[in-house]
Amino acid sequence: MITVAPIETLAGPMRLPWPQELDARADMEPGPIHCPVMVDEVLDHLSPGGGLIVDATVGGGGHSAAIMASCPDCTVIGLDRDTETLEMARTRLNPWNSRIQLIGEDYRRLPQLAFEHRWWPIRGIVADLGVSSMQLDSAERGFSFRRSGPLDMRMDRTSARTAADLVNELGQGELASVLRRFGDERYAGRIARAIVTARRDKRLRTTDQLAQIVSAAIPRAPERIHPATRTFQAIRIAVNDELNGLYEFVVGAARLLAPGGRLVIITFHSLEDRVVKQAFRYLASDCVCPPKLPRCACSKFTEVEILTKRPLRPRADEVEVNPRSRSAHLRAVERL
Ligand SMILES: C[S@@+](CC[C@H](N)C(=O)[O-])C[C@H]1O[C@@H](n2cnc3c(N)ncnc32)[C@H](O)[C@@H]1O
Fold first, then answer.
1. What is the DSSP letter of 73?
2. CA-based, 20 to 30 A from 278: which of 15, 80, 140, 305?
């Protein structure tokens, strides 16, 4: 029996995904390598002047390459849980290979890794969350309804549960809940019912099968987006357990920084951005006592300064060139 882990770090009702992340164009532009988003903003806020920088989601290596090119005194540790992606990054980052180390790891293990390998002092950490173009554009990875392939969607291909497992084994109610929570799918119930009916005949194995079931299950609306967009997004988030541990990662990463060090996080989903915002607020607060307490009894102190009161968005000219950047939200803090 497969269960979907709860989002432990989120309080209150979920916000809806931004309409932009559901824009059809965002899934239409294939590219051989990931085009890094908001590079100038990342460099401005990371402000790499030298020393050790961690790229927690190295992906195609775009942000790492920009850091390397702009800062000859920096060394970079790049993490990614997708080891196939990491091999592509290795090629792209080859010009700087004496200053960069790439490791197939989950960023949620960053505090343990830093402790084990004595990564100190860390001057900056960047995390560019979500999925890369290489993952989306590779049919055999099964991330996209536009490409015919196995229903996989695992970023880490050694992990046990594929999208096919989830789609074939979750109960109807659980499936509907995943589609609602992670995709804001208004037809979640109908889609879940159609999936459960279809899988009675045979196991669902391909992206095409799922896309067709979803398309047939919901009314045709004059929407700009493919009917399966929300379903694929929701299932990807569930398969990769993308929201669990994010809050702890953000807090832990900020605490690893040397004084003056910067943490920059880019999100592509409103739920992720909300977690990052909450974690930054917690780090910036000097008291977490219940409001009714007459005097502060906690030992909390202000750990960071928030550098972005509101999240930064990509410029229009960037969105024009790289439509996949359109839902990016960047937030940054500086360690005190
Ligand atoms: C948007 S891409 C990063 C692109 C990269 N910044 C660049 O410029 O090429 C996100 C990457 O994060 C990786 N990723 C997602 N969740 C992860 C996790 N928990 N730990 C490590 N890497 C993760 C994905 O495999 C993907 O390669």
1. T
2. 80
pLDDT tens, 294-311? Answer: 999 999 999 999 999 999
- The CB of 59 under 6 Å from ligand 1? The reply is yes
Distance CA(21)–CA(268), nearest Å, equals 7
- The DSSP string of 19-50 is GGGG-GGGGT---SS---SSHHHHHHHH---S
Model-level pTM?
0.90
Question: Which residues does 110 contact at the CB level (< 8 Å), separation at least 6?
Answer: 54, 56, 79, 125, 249, 252, 253, 256
Indicate whether residue 141 lines ligand 1 (CB < 6 A).
no
Percentage, residues of the chain above pLDDT 90: 87
Structure tokens at 256: 């690893």
Sign, CA torsion 222/228/233/234 = positive
Give the burial class of 261: count Cβ atoms within 10 A of its Cβ; 0-12 exposed, 13-18 middle, 19 or more buried. Answer: buried
Contact assessment for residue 230 and residue 178, using Cβ atoms and an 8 Å cutoff: no
